[in-house]
Every structure is written in C-alpha cells, then in structure tokens.
Amino acid sequence: MIVIVVRNAWYSDERQIKDYYIDIRKLYNRLENKDIYRVNLNGNFGTSNKNYLMDLYSKGYSVIPSIDNLNDLDKLPVSNKYLLKPKESYCGVGIVEVSKNELNSKVNDEYIIQPVMSFIAEIQFYFIGTQFQYALEFKPSKVPVCPEPIEYMCNSNELELARSFANLNNQLIGVQRVDFIKLEGGELLLSEIEDTTPRLDLKVVSKNIRKQFLYNYKNMVYNYAKNK
Prior knowledge:
alpha+beta; D-amino Acid Aminotransferase, Chain A, domain 1; 2 domains; five-stranded antiparallel beta sheet; three-stranded antiparallel beta sheet; 5 helices
C-alpha cells in the first residue's frame, strides 16, 4: 500500500514560486489515474491559480471583489487604489499596490485586480475534510509582518460562512484552511482557500485542540486507506 501525504511543500525561495505550481500540477497529473492513496492532492483550489476567486465573486459569494480585466472595473467597489495579486503566488509574494491611474500600465493577465480594503484582522478557519477544527486570528494583518496568531472564537454565522466554502471541497481528503479578511463592520470576505499545504500554526492552539486535531487527522488518513 502506498499513501502520499503532502505537507509543507512550498519553496523557500520566492523566485521559485512558479516552479512550485508547475511541479505540483505535474505530480497531480501523474497520480490522477493511479490507484494510490492521496492526502491533500484532490482539492479544487490549491493546485490551481487564483482564478477561482473571480469565479466565486461573480457567483455572489462573500469574496474580496476580484477581476482580471479592466473592462470589468465597474464590477468592483469604487477605489483610488488597487492590489494586483499574481495568480500564481502565496504568502503575499509579488502583490503590487497601484493607483487607479496606473492600472492601464501595470495590469496583465498574470494578475487579479482587487480594491484596497480597510480591515481589522485576518481570520483563518481550519478543517479536516469538511469538519471544522479551530480558527485563528491574525491582527491586524499577515502582510507585511506576520503577527503571532491567537485562537479565534467564531460565532455561528461566521462558522456557517466558512463551512460553505469548505464544502466546495466536499471530496477533499486532507486539511484545508479557509482565509478571510474581517472588515471594520465585522463582515468576513474570503481571501483564499488553501487545500494543498496549509500552514497549521498548531503551536498556538490549546493542548486539547492540538491533541484532538492530530487524532482526527490520523483517523482520517487511516480510515481513507482502509476503506478505499
């Protein structure tokens, strides 16, 4: 029996980010038709680029407004400044902030376009498959300097929102992290779904949560292999 578990597969050299996306897709394609147990290699988002954000936004999901074509600029909230985010990137690498007047000269098909938004924190929800485990808060933001996260006591509406995105990966075997920005009024807007190699920050959660997470994770892997 062969079980492939993907964890912490990112390149440490930011210049090799595109290589990461190429390599992870090659691995996915090689395994797709093989009878091999795969953990965190059957998600809908992590091995693709950020086009899914535009797709979800266009369908009315609670997502940071996202486009990649200046002809659609009127679909975004009015803003004097915009963020250009590389479609193939992570950890905020390569993000460029530009004025509205700079858009024509800066935009190309490698970026998605989002308005600069004022928010008070970043909230991350962690799931094993589609089962919620814990949530963390990064305040005020992970970029440019990542603060130490703290456990976040989400309310029922926030958890329902996060779960609605996790359920888009209803066949996922593995861990997924659903990330939001929290606006000043308390609204959550999706910033990312990481379903390939999400950083877990288990060291900051309580011992009981950490123990239960590891127990649930191992059971998921064992049960998947046993019942496949």
